Write a sequence for this structure.
């Protein structure tokens, strides 16, 4: 059977029909493959860029949110140790334990908060856990004797035995935050330390990954300074970040230890004023998932190429079988065109059906080519439109994330990060052009009573309305930000005299006192005011003066303005 058909197949391949079929089909396939490869390369670059920017935005947001929350916890511990109870009171007294327990009740992320004396003996702690224990050898105690400290994640064997275990069987892990307790003369009285649940850190980071990223198989990882993954738990200590050139690009496709390629973005976490933890946030997405739309496009283009090739081959074969001797006349005419020897003479319609069908077929093929070309152009235009739409949507999402990154989600005014940026800008203007500015620290009086009596939702409503009163009480060129808890900061541009700052502060105090807050009635505020001076070496000096003035305002009876 094979011997009988083999010569016939060879004859068809070597014939005019076979050659014409082969070349027409091959040309169509090569053209479509070239266009497909070009479009696929463009789509791959655009998709990898847009997906990588999305991962970078998520990683950056997670790193900023984690750093902000850790900074807030450090600030809470620092503010607590500066209260008169800790600076002058009995560290082993019941009032200290009550203050620590109130702090833990307000923040569920605290697993343990305690106070140790200068020798490392725990004097007081929440629920009396570790009371009387010697913690002098603990890193957090040793480091906090000389300044605020934030430690790396670790397991606390003794503390884990005294706390409820996790339902998923994972070991309890903690992050240490500690600060020295100094008396009014700056002498060390002890150390206040807190163990923060590592699960809170993980939840903080994971909260940034929305449902859209989860549906795209995006994973978020936390790694230490050596690149060893700390979270999620199934990768803890078992996975290491791959080598990358983060300084050169914000995202890239990397080969991970499991042998798979991932579209990856890695961002450092920076905690101000408590040492460099070296933590990094990594978002990764399998490269095959990230580039899946491109793969589907390539498959469709390949299918289109195969169908078109078969169509072209069938048409070419049909036309070739109907051509006979007039083909030589056409070849001669072609040589005449090539040599420019004489005007070409094409076969005339003499009643020979092959010649008429050939002319008709040439027009048909030309029309078919143009139609397919238009279809390819339309497909290209559609793809480019989709890329533009997705790029526009991503840009809009990035702008919204940038806006949310500098706004306090509860009150709508600037957050601590925005305040720090504006404060640094004012300080640079003061240094460069002598442009003055002033700072007001505004604290709601007895705000804890509102939360305790009316509940936290009412307290949140009071904070939102208080923020609106503050914004209405200052100029458009001034800045209002939530400094932390019930405390707000107001930056007054072009005000360098204490009297001017005092007038604005008094105006705000009176406006707040005259405002009626639903369910609560009237609320008062204490305000610490301070003006920047050319002698300031950094922007933190004006903050310190305003903070001290606020402390004096509250100590003198609240509902007043004190200048620092």
């Amino acid at each position: 059977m094979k011997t009988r058909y083999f010569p016939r197949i060879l004859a068809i391949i070597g014939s005019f029909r076979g050659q014409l079929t082969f070349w027409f089909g091959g040309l169509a396939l090569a053209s479509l493959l070239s266009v497909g490869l070009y479009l696929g390369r463009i789509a791959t670059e655009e998709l990898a860029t847009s997906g990588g920017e999305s991962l970078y935005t998520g990683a950056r947001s997670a790193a900023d949110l984690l750093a902000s929350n850790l900074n807030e916890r450090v600030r809470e511990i620092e503010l607590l140790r500066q209260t008169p109870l800790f600076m002058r009171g009995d560290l082993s007294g019941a009032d200290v334990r009550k203050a620590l327990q109130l702090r833990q009740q307000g923040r569920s992320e605290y697993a343990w908060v305690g106070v140790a004396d200068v020798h490392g003996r725990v004097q007081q702690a929440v629920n009396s856990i570790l009371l009387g224990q010697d913690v002098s050898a603990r890193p957090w105690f040793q480091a906090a004797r000389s300044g605020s400290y934030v430690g790396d994640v670790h397991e606390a064997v003794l503390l884990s035995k005294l706390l409820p275990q996790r339902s998923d069987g994972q070991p309890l892990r903690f992050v240490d935050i500690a600060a020295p307790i100094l008396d009014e003369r700056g002498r060390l009285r002890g150390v206040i330390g807190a163990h923060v649940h590592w699960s809170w850190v993980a939840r903080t980071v994971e909260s940034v990954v929305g449902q859209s990223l989860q549906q795209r198989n995006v994973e978020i990882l936390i790694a230490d300074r050596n690149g060893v993954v700390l979270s999620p738990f199934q990768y803890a200590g078992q996975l290491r970040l791959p080598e990358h050139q983060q300084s050169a690009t914000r995202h890239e496709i990397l080969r991970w230890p499991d042998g798979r390629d991932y579209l990856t973005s890695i961002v450092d976490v920076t905690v101000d004023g408590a040492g460099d933890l070296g933590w990094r946030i990594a978002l990764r997405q399998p490269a095959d998932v990230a580039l899946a739309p491109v793969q589907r496009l390539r498959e469709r283009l390949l299918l289109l190429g195969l169908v078109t090739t078969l169509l072209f081959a069938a048409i070419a074969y049909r036309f070739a079988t109907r051509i006979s001797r007039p083909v030589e006349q056409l070849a001669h005419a072609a040589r005449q065109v090539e040599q420019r020897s004489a005007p070409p003479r094409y076969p005339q319609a003499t009643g020979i059906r092959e010649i008429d069908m050939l002319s008709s077929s040439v027009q048909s093929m030309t029309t078919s080519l143009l139609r397919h070309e238009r279809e390819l152009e339309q497909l290209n235009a559609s793809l480019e439109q989709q890329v533009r739409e997705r790029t526009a949507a991503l840009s809009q999402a990035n702008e919204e994330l940038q806006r949310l990154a500098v706004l306090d989600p509860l009150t709508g005014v600037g957050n601590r990060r925005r305040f720090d940026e504006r404060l640094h800008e004012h300080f640079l203007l003061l240094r460069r052009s002598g442009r003055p500015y002033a700072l007001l620290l505004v604290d709601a009086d007895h705000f804890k009573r509102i939360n305790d009596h009316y509940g936290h939702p009412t307290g949140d409503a009071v904070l939102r309305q208080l923020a609106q009163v503050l914004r209405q009480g200052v100029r458009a060129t001034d800045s209002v930000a939530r400094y932390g808890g019930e405390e707000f900061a107001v930056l007054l541009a072009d005000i360098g005299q204490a009297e001017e700052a005092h007038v604005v502060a008094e105006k705000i105090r009176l406006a707040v006192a005259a405002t009626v807050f639903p369910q609560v009635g009237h609320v008062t505020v204490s305000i610490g005011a301070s003006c920047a001076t050319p002698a300031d070496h950094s922007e933190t000096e004006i903050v310190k003066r305003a903070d001290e003035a606020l402390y004096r305002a509250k100590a003198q009876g609240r509902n007043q303005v004190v200048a620092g």
Notes: The domain at 416-563 is CATH 3.30.70.270 (Alpha-Beta Plaits). The CA atoms of residues 440 and 529 lie 5 Å apart. The chain has three domains: 2-31+313-401, 32-312, 416-563. The chain has 17 helices and 15 strands.
